[in-house]
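At this stage, I wrote out one protein, both as residues and as discrete backbone shape codes, and that material follows here.
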Amino acid sequence: MAEPILGMRFAVLFLAGGAVPNPIDLRFRRVSGLAIDVDTEVLPQGGANTYQLQLPKGVRHGNLVLERGMVIGSPLSLEFNASLSSFKFLTSNVLITLLSADNAPLAAWLFMKAWPVKWATSDLDASEPGLVIDTLELAYTRMQPMRL
């Protein structure tokens, strides 16, 4: 019987211009947005009132959302800052890899032509100690799930 797969070990690689990713920018606390939906069009059948046809119209997806503790000197944070400040967006491919306990890849998701659309920092609260969390949100052209 197959063991259930835990979603707590994963790596995030930003593949921009063939550059080797900085090790600071590989680790994230949470990744969300790993979903694809198919939009459908409902067509009633002439004379048949008991059912309708559903036909695929296209593929839709949300944004990729990455969360991590605030990192000083991160090339990824510098890139986000430059893009959002100058309104000049360079795309990169992003590879999310789910890892086993011994760091072997189990599954992956490739996000093609990703670019930043939101950058948020958690609330600062002097009454409660806690990590400062950055949330990075990216739009992308296409997602390709890969089961290894």
Summary: The CA atoms of residues 126 and 132 lie 12 Å apart. The chain has a mean pLDDT of 88.
